[in-house]
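Q: I have 391 residues here and want to know how they pack in 3D. Can you give me a structure?
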Amino acid sequence: MPATTSAPSPQLSVDALVDATPDSRDRVVDLLRAVSIAVVVLWHWTFSITQWRHGALRMPNPIADVPGLWTATWVLQVMPLFFLVGGYANQAGWDGVVRAGGGARAFWAKRFGRLVRPVAVYVGCWTVVDLAWQASGGRSVVDWGMVVFVPLWFLGVYVGVVALVPLTARLHVRHRIATLVTLAAGALLADWLRLGADIDAGATAIGLVGSALVWVFCHQLGYLWRDWTTGVTPADVVRRRARALVAGGLAALVLLTQLGPYSSSMVAVRGADVSNMFPTTACIAALVVLQLGLVLTVRPALARWLQRRRVWRTVVAANGVAMTVFCWHMTALVLFLLAYEAVGFTLATEPTAGWWLTRPVWVAGPAVVLAALLAVFARFELPTRPARSNR
C-alpha cells in the first residue's frame, strides 16, 4: 500500500473567494467589518498626537483641544459596530455548527482558529524582538512602547465575548428582548454604582462587570440584526424598526451625555473625569443601538452596491488580512515614527495648524510600512484550501 501523503494547503486567491460567495451571504456584514478595522487604523495614525513623554510613547488625541471635535466620535467610534457585526457573523457560525451536529468545542475551534494565528505570530515576534533588544542593553518595549499592544486589549475582550456564544445564542433564542434589556439595565446599574453612588470599594470590579455587559450587549444586538434580515420580516417593518432604533439610540445618547455624568466623547479625552471606553459605559450601548438603526437604513443600497464584482473583490481582499492589519498597524506607526525622527523631523506635542497639515503624511508613511509587514505576515491569516490526502 502506498504511503499516505498530505498535499499542501494552498492559499485561496481573492478571485476564488469572490467566485465562491453564496447568494445568501449578507455582504454588508463583511463591508462593515472591513470599514471598522480601517477606521480604527486611520484614527490611531492620524488622530493621535504621538509624542515622547518621560521616555515613553504617548498618544493623546486632539479632542480636548478642539471645541466640538467630540461630535466626530459619535460617527468614528466603530468598536461597538465591530461587535455588532461579530454578533451577526457568530450567530451564523453557531447555527451552522449546530446544524452539523456540533457543539461549543466545534464552534470555538472554527471561530478561534483563524483569529489566534495572526495574534500568536504578532505576540511571538514582539517577544523575540524585545528579548533580543534587552539582551543588547536596551529597555523593554513594556517600558517605552506599550502603544504597540493597544490592539490586544480589544482582541481579548472580543475573544471573551465569542467564547460566550454557545450561552448567549441560546439565550437569544429563548429570551430575545429580555436578554438585551437585562444586559442594558445591568450596564446602567454598574455605572450608577461606580459613578452615581460614588462607591469606592470594589469600583474597579464594578467597572469591569459593566464593561463586559456593554460588549456582550453590542454582540447580542447583532443576533437581532440577523433575525430581522434573514428571516421573514417584511422590508417595511425593518424600515420602521430602523427608524425607531435611530431615534431611540440618539435620544439615549443625548440624555446620557447631557444630563448624566458621562463624557460627550465616545473615546478617552485628556483631563476628562469619565471615559466612556474604559471602563465601558452605557453610552456605548446607546451608540450601538443608533449604529444598528443606521445600518438597517442604508443596508438595501449597500447590498446593491456590493453586487459589483470590483467592489466585492476589494471587500473580500480587505477581510482576508483584517486581523493582520489590526495587529500590526501600531507597529507600523512606531517604525515610521522612528524613521521620521531619524531623518531630523520633530514630533508635535500640540494640535497646531502644522500638525493638521501633516496628517496625510501620517497616513501614507505608516501605510507603506504596514504594506511591507503584510507581505511577510498576511500568510498566517489568509484562508487556505483544506488539505487532501492521497491514499
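Q: Anything worth noting?
A: The chain has one domain: 25-381. The longest helix spans residues 104-135.
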